[in-house]
Design goal:
heterodimer; A: mainly alpha; Non-ribosomal Peptide Synthetase Peptidyl Carrier Protein, Chain A; 7 helices; globular; B: alpha/beta; Rossmann fold; 8 helices; 7 strands; about 15% strand
Chain lengths: ~120, ~250
């Protein structure tokens, strides 16, 4: 199953979009305008389509900032600490998100793809 | 009035209580398909005994309220297909707050509030796939006006009401709505024993001078599930003969 193609199908239907709008680099919230209720429906659709258990707060990086604060409080390096919370993200991607975190919600289609791939392998 | 229902499959949580069994018969008469939960073999037998004439028109499912493992297997077992949920489940713990057992009170809220929140989450995610669902929580007039000793019961009912109300707010736009029914003194289940012991005094306090019957509750719940009631969302309806409105 092609994860990107399936995700595109789900997102275009949920958010009423043109298929061509979506690439792995697309921001879900900043560009596609996904709201919390849309993300909830996305999680349900991913669970249904890919047959994996979805933890909404993990797949959508909901507590990313909180984990950054935890790293600071524990006096640990932010990148490796946060990466342990999101094993489906590369260290490079975690670094990129931290760098841009002041510019709005950083969740991209490729992050969701990473979660699906990681948990499909587990299953 | 003819009630119409756009859904069919109705999960009744706490399916072995007298009210649930009465409701199930009304549902079957309205061509709905009730799925009643039970927590023991004795409960399962009670369902089959009561619904004997309706074999094939209902299902049963094991759910130990408060036990997360039983929740994880509930929805896969009933086919991830659900239009309605009616929630009668409620543990009973009557005690003065200042004399409560600590272990029991922690367990009581875990079972009756936290577990219910997980149940609601799971049911809503099943219903979201069809973008349709109706949930009715059977609360109690004691949520509004508890007697001494009903503090934990009232607190857990109010907390559960808040969960249902919020779900109706959050998911109403996706076709999933909720309503809470607060019956007063009922001539069924736990209420029956209470009324038998203290009936005359209690009835005197109720403006209509009588208790509510199980049939009345079942018919009201059925109406609340019907298509014409779906605008009654994220709110509470009290059905107590006027008891909690009086001074």
């Amino acid at each position: 199953m092609n994860i990107l193609e399936e995700l595109k199908k789900i997102l275009t239907e949920l958010l009423d979009l043109d298929n061509g709008d979506i690439t792995p680099e697309t921001y879900l919230i900043q560009e596609l305008g996904a709201e919390s209720i849309d993300l909830l429906e996305l999680a349900v659709a991913i669970n249904s389509c890919f047959k994996i258990k979805v933890k909404d707060e993990e797949i959508f990086l909901t507590r990313f900032r909180l984990h950054l604060t935890e790293a600071e409080q524990r006096k640990e390096d932010a990148v490796p600490y946060v990466a342990t919370k999101y094993p489906f993200l590369t260290a490079q991607r975690v670094e990129e998100i931290i760098k841009n975190i002041g510019k709005g919600p950083q969740l991209k289609v490729k992050d969701v793809m990473g979660y699906i791939a990681f948990h499909s392998k587990e299953a | 009035m003819n009630l119409t229902f756009s859904g069919k499959r109705a999960l009744i949580i706490g399916g072995t209580c007298e009210l649930a069994l009465t409701l199930a018969q009304h549902m079957i008469a309205s061509a709905l398909f009730p799925i009643l939960t039970h927590r023991s073999e004795a409960g399962l037998k009670a369902i089959h005994r009561e619904l004997l004439p309706f074999t094939g028109k209902y299902e049963t499912a094991y759910l130990e309220f408060g036990t997360r493992e039983s929740l994880q297997t509930l929805f896969p077992r009933i086919g991830e297909d659900l239009d309605y949920l009616v929630d009668f489940a409620q543990g009973n713990y009557e005690n003065l707050i200042a004399s409560a057992d600590e272990e029991t009170l922690y367990r009581y809220f875990t079972e009756n509030v936290s577990f219910r929140a997980e149940l609601l989450k799971t049911a809503a995610r099943v219903m979201l796939k069809k973008r349709r669902g109706r949930l009715v929580f059977i609360s109690s007039a004691a949520a509004e006006s508890p007697n001494p000793g009903q503090g934990f019961y009232a607190a857990s009912k109010l907390a559960s009401e808040a969960l249902y109300r919020s779900m109706g707010l959050e998911l109403g736009g996706r076709g999933i709505t909720t309503v809470i029914l607060r019956p007063g003194y009922v001539t069924a289940g736990r209420g029956k024993a209470f009324l038998n012991a203290r009936g005359e005094d209690i009835l005197e306090k109720i403006p209509v001078k009588r208790a509510i019957t199980g049939e009345e509750i079942a018919e009201t719940v059925l109406f609340l599930l019907a298509d014409s009631a779906s605008a009654i969302n994220a709110t509470v309806i009290t059905m107590d003969g006027g008891l909690t409105s009086r001074k």
